[in-house]
Specification:
The radius of gyration is 17 Å and the shape is globular. Strand 1, helix 1 and strand 2 form a beta-alpha-beta unit. Strands 3-2-1-4-5-6-7 form a seven-stranded parallel sheet, sandwiched between helices. The chain has eight helices and seven strands. The protein is α/β, with parallel strands linked by helices and 234 residues long. Belongs to the short-chain dehydrogenases/reductases (SDR) family. One of its GO terms (biological process) is monocarboxylic acid metabolic process. It holds the Pfam family adh_short.
Length: 234
């Protein structure tokens, strides 16, 4: 599988950076993107909250690599606020980045994958979309919508040897989550996670590597909760 071309959104920190490093070390060619200005080969600085930029990203990746074999939709934003305090602008930004842009990128790469009769698509969702989260209803809704896209697209592309799967992380040990929680809040969060730990970004990266391998060619349309048991209840 090494030598395949990967388009990875949100590739410069946290989960995305772990996926990027894992794939690069495994011999994949990876085209990354984020809103940061980074001097890196096969990289585009782009704001994907503007859905018009999805086509710009796809075209840049195609020009750089010639073909996109694998798409990993990792980019996304989190919004924690009661529904009555969620503004229309916040909702639009959330839906654009977490759902519309991933769907557009899927639509662009699907043409090539169908033609080549091979492809892999992985959507990075969230445990919030699988089980719900109070005060994060808009965020959970976008990730739940991504799950519906994953299942439907898996059916649509199955005959072309293209698999589509989703990974739903729980709490992940990243700078973002560590900065968002006080020490007391972190202890409270750990107390409701059955394994009493946060997921490591590398665990998600390793699962991506498996899902794009030929060993996983029979696995499609699945939403996998990688959450240290959080989705199972207390």
């Amino acid at each position: 599988m090494s030598g395949k071309n990967v388009l990875l959104t949100g590739s410069t920190k946290g989960i995305g950076l772990a996926i990027y490093n894992e794939l690069k070390s495994s011999g994949y060619r990876v085209f990354g993107c984020s809103r940061a200005n980074i001097e890196q080969k096969d990289y585009l600085r782009v704001d994907l909250t503007d859905t018009k930029n999805a086509e710009i990203l796809y075209s840049a990746a195609k020009e750089a690599m010639g073909n996109i074999d694998i798409l990993i939709n990792n980019v996304g934003i989190y919004l924690y606020t009661p529904i009555e305090k969620t503004s229309a602008d916040e909702l639009k930004r959330l839906v654009n980045l977490n759902f519309i842009t991933p769907q557009l990128l899927c639509s662009y790469v699907a043409t090539d994958m169908k033609k080549n009769k091979w492809g892999r698509i992985i959507n990075i969702g969230s445990i919030s979309g699988a089980v719900g989260e109070a005060n994060a209803s808009a965020y959970a809704a976008t990730k739940s919508g991504l799950s519906g896209l994953t299942k439907s697209l898996a059916l649509e592309l199955a005959q072309y040897n293209v698999t589509v799967n989703q990974i739903n992380p729980g709490w992940v040990d990243t700078n973002l989550s560590n900065e968002a929680l006080s020490e007391e809040e972190k202890l409270e969060t750990l107390d409701v996670i059955p394994q009493r730990r946060f997921i490591e970004p590398k665990e998600i990266a390793k699962l991506c590597t498996y899902l794009i391998s030929d060993d996983a060619k029979g696995l499609s349309g699945q939403s996998i909760n990688l959450c240290a048991g959080l989705s199972c209840g207390a």
